[in-house]
């Protein structure tokens, strides 16, 4: 994974609260989530932008990199005391700083999560808040499964979390399953024809390209699995 | 409400003045459509442009839209006319039923129709309806 110890230290507020324990997900874990997501998006910035160049306006990697950099900065300036605060800050910052459609879309996911999440954060609480965030996303973007959007990665991730809960697995494995579901969902957008956004103007020519929003959603879920595995 | 337009009050009779915010991906486009709207509907309609990102790039800024809404708000509601993509999504985050409403209309035609209705002193639902008529209005 190539993560640095600096990044682990950056998420230190979770270290003293036993964030690794199943059922006890501390604010620091979610700060680390955004730090890792920012790192992955920066690493894959050119890939995301290339995907967006094929069917969008070629700014997804740049925009999301800028937005997440601002999120990490905002979280660093005022260390949040609760998961709700982490998500509220991240959501508001993405809405204000991204500039493209991904801003309000991701912003509404995290803002809604911030409204729903309760302390102490359990896996069930997280899964419920995440599900509510995805519903807020679907409502704002008026997108459904199969439209070739981030919904196609995030809905499978939410379902994987629900199944993991039902099966009684811990947070670590649950987030790993969610990350895998999101990655498969993103890959599944390749044969789809876009029905939302700029890509929808391309009609059949949007087929054969992975949706950049679904690809970045898969990175978000991968980041969550990574930081939880390390915690 | 404070800040009611004197001229608008004279024309509209009831003193109603709905504000308009034109949200585009492009700062230049939003500005020019505001100029066009003022030229056609008159200089009294409170209409503001919120185009592009804060640093002038293509995209949408929630802060610019919020500032524009505050600038045109006179107590009778604000109609936001977005163009595409993130303009629509970001503007939708600000919607408040009965107070801040979005028009799902062609950008230029909807903005002009809404401004003419606002200038006539019509209330928010009527200004929205006027804008929506622009969607089905055939040019040919």
Automatic annotation (TrEMBL), chain A:
Q: Does the keyword Transferase apply?
A: yes
Record-linked Gene3D superfamilies: 1.25.40.340
* Keyword hit for Disulfide bond: no
> A Pfam family name for this chain?
Dak2
Q: What keywords sit in the KW lines?
A: Kinase, Transferase
Q: Which residues form the DhaL domain?
A: 28-226
Drop me one GO molecular function for this one.
kinase activity
Q: What InterPro entries does this protein's entry cite?
A: DhaK_L_YcgS (IPR012737), DhaL_dom (IPR004007), DhaL_dom_sf (IPR036117), Dihydroxyacetone_Kinase (IPR050861)
| SMART domains with a match to the protein in the record | Dak2 (SM01120)
Give the protein's recorded name: Dihydroxyacetone kinase subunit DhaL
Automatic annotation (TrEMBL), chain B:
Write the Enzyme Commission number(s) for this entry: 2.7.1.121
Task: Write out the catalysed reaction.
Answer: dihydroxyacetone + phosphoenolpyruvate = dihydroxyacetone phosphate + pyruvate
- Show the GO MF annotations: phosphoenolpyruvate-glycerone phosphotransferase activity
Q: What is this protein's function per UniProt?
A: Component of the dihydroxyacetone kinase complex, which is responsible for the phosphoenolpyruvate (PEP)-dependent phosphorylation of dihydroxyacetone. DhaM serves as the phosphoryl donor. Is phosphorylated by phosphoenolpyruvate in an EI- and HPr-dependent reaction, and a phosphorelay system on histidine residues finally leads to phosphoryl transfer to DhaL and dihydroxyacetone.
PANTHER family for this protein: PEP-DEPENDENT DIHYDROXYACETONE KINASE, PHOSPHORYL DONOR SUBUNIT DHAM
Q: Which NCBIfam families match?
A: dha_pts
How would you classify this enzyme at the top EC level? transferase
Record's keyword terms, sorted:
Kinase, Transferase
Protein name according to UniProt = phosphoenolpyruvate--glycerone phosphotransferase
Which species is listed as the source? Actinomadura luzonensis
- Stretches assigned to the PTS EIIA type-4 domain: 17-140
Subunit relationships: Homodimer. The dihydroxyacetone kinase complex is composed of a homodimer of DhaM, a homodimer of DhaK and the subunit DhaL.
**One Pfam assignment:** EIIA-man
